[in-house]
Amino acid sequence: MTLTLDGEKIDRNRFTGAKVENATFHNCDFSGADLTGSEFIGCTFYDRDSRLGCRFSRAQLKDASFKSCDLSMTDFRNVSALSIEIRECRAQGADFRGASFMNMITSRSWFCSAYITKSNLSYANFSKVVLEKCELWENRWNGAQILGANFSGSDLSGGEFASFDWRAADFTHCDLTNSELGELDVRNVDLQGVKLDSEQASQLMERLGILVIG
To answer: Where are the transmembrane segments (predicted)?
Structure first.
């Protein structure tokens, strides 16, 4: 029997460190739950009928893992998510505002850790989120909201960036190779330290009326 929960408030320690496969969670509330080290594989957190996702606000998601899950419309606001894994998931419209992927060493020094790869992040909200030097490759970012976010030094290679406002966030020192860069305009985006492949560089130059030969 696969686990199916509908409209439940999840107790704080119910899934702490657990491995959960192929479960269905419709309109469930994980707010404040301790999911440290928990692993969810092939699970559904989105109710297609109501078009609502589950709520994880203020949850502890350190070292938590979501693989091949449907996280569409999920509320991840204000979660603690150092070293979270989200791999090969659907996360359209998910809300990450206030989420922390950061380990504070002192008040002025920190590092971030997150592994969000091969996932559909279209229309997700990352406003003011700090994801420095993280593994963020081969994602779809179409229409994502990123105002005030910081992706500096992250691996964004192989991504898809349609309807995407490059001016809204910090992408310095990012790896953008093999990505579809959408409307990126080198004239109004700080690309210091950014990695591009030769085909991308040629396309960006062409938009400035510069032809790259060879």
So the answer is: none
Closest CA to 172 of 187, 153, 196, 186: 153
Q: What is the pLDDT of residues 16-67, one digit of tens each?
A: 999 999 999 999 999 999 999 999 999 999 999 999 999 999 999 999 999 9
Rounded Cα–Cα distance for residues 169 and 151 (Å): 7
Phi, psi torsion values for 67, nearest 5 degrees:
-125, 125
What is this structure's pTM? 0.95
Cα 171 from chain centroid (whole Å): 15
> Cα–Cα distance between 188 and 191 in angstroms, integer?
9
Q: Tokens 């990012």 label which residue?
A: 174
Contacts of 42 (CB under 8 A, 6+ apart): 21, 22, 67, 68, 69
Q: What is the DSSP letter of 210?
A: P
Q: Which of 124, 103, 106, 128 is nearest to 114 (CA)?
A: 103
Q: Which helix (H) or strand (E) holds 8?
A: none
CB-based contacts of 4: which residues, under 8 Å, 6+ apart? 23, 24, 26
pLDDT tens digits, one per residue of 75-117: 999 999 999 999 999 999 999 999 999 998 888 888 999 999 9
Burial class (CB in 10 A: 0-12, 13-18, 19+), 41: middle
